[in-house]
Amino acid sequence: MESSFVLLFMFTSLIAFMLSGAGLAFVLGAIAFISTILLWGPAALIVTVLNTFETMTSESLMAIPLYVLMASILQKSAIIDALYDAMEAWSARLNGGLAVGTIIICTILAAMTGVVGAAVAAMGILALPSMLSRGYHPPLALGAICAGGTLGILIPPSVVTIVYAITAQISIGQMFAAGIVPGLILAGSYIAYILIRTWLNPSLAPIPDDIEDLPLGEKLGKLKALILPAFVVFGVLGSIYTGIATPTEAAAVGVLGAAISALVTRRLSFEMLSGAATETLRVTAMILWITIGARAFISVFVATGGADSILGFVEGVEASRWVVLGVMVLVLIFLGLFLDEIGIILLCVPVFLPIIIALEFDPLWFGVLFMITAQMAYITPPFGYTLFYLKGVLPEGIGIGQVYRGVIPFFFIQVVVLIFFAVFPGVVTWLPEALSQVGK
Q1: How far apart are CA 299 and CA 290, in angstroms?
Q2: pLDDT tens digits, one per residue of 80-89
Q3: Nearest-CA neighbor of 240 among 59, 438, 80?
Q4: Per residue in 54-89, is it b (16+ CB within 10 Å) or e — as a string?
Q5: 177-196 b/e with 16+ CB inside 10 Å = b?
Q6: Buried residues in 6-30 as b, exposed as e (16+ CB within 10 A)
Q7: Per-residue model confidence as pLDDT tens digits over 328-355
Q8: pTM, whole model, 2 decimals?
């Protein structure tokens, strides 16, 4: 059978099944299974078996369940509650202060857990009622929570970053380093937007007259809530960049730090660990099933010459390499409307990365652009994950339409920051390069 026919069959089937709402992992696996039999017969399925075995025995992928377990334990250890209490004490008398504090806490949570759902759900429960009770404009409060929660994709230790690094076959530690500065710049951009907008229109985030200004000593005392988060962040990132542990080993350090934190807050129990383990099993199984299906799909795509055809087509197009990059970014943003970021990585990176290398772009830098498009996907209707995480905790009278309106300004901030990093790649690459020089 003609390979071109099989490629057409693969992509039309992929689009049709995705629109039907079927699970991505099983869609990819089924299409790869049928295509393999059509092309080479049942005996060729041994390749899928070998790919599956290689995926399940990958040492790098061990980091995923460990980081997810760390995040789940931290989410149940009351650390987030203490952080919010400290933030509220310091920012309550600033226009937009609670929204700014929410972004700061989301940044800290991103550096602690690397899991988006933990930050969005926690801030939806803690920060949203507080902001609404102070008279905050609902879309501003909702947008700050959604956008702040997505920082966990970019700031290490990020599970999404690990999947990208493994798929692109580049250093996880280098990808972690590349995400730090862009993540902080993005968080700073959110804060600047909130401060400027509430300064221009204070009614969006009013300061109630009855807010008590706590004594300085009491405020300083509340900063002890930062000790445990700093302990966990230093344990994970510090062990990586001091050379004590690999990123995979650092995940185990993070689990230990999370368990110690839960012990200190007196939340460590068999029931809590059991719940965290169950959540870890669910998330890890989802990621691995998608990985297995995507690897099977991509192996057929590559074997039929699909990747070479696309690369040859791009090389033959008489267009600027920046135009090609722009088209790829637009494709990623479009796919983010319908697919989760893990599926996009596993589908697109094996196809896009050879093009990026052929165009002489840095794969590390492209990885950061990729992560920002994943953040866009998280807040973009109709299937943005943060929108649904937040929908589950919305109080009565607040609809999903207000959530959609709230994320629009933050989406455009992400677009501006994405363009900034595309124009100034050195902002992304200087820290990984500096750390690699120190390592030598």
Answers
A1: 14
A2: 777 777 777 7
A3: 438
A4: ebeeeeebebbbbbbbbbbbbbbbbbbebbbebbbb
A5: bbbbbbbeebbebbbebbbe
A6: bbeebeeebeebbeeeeebbebbbb
A7: 888 888 777 766 677 778 778 888 888 8
A8: 0.77
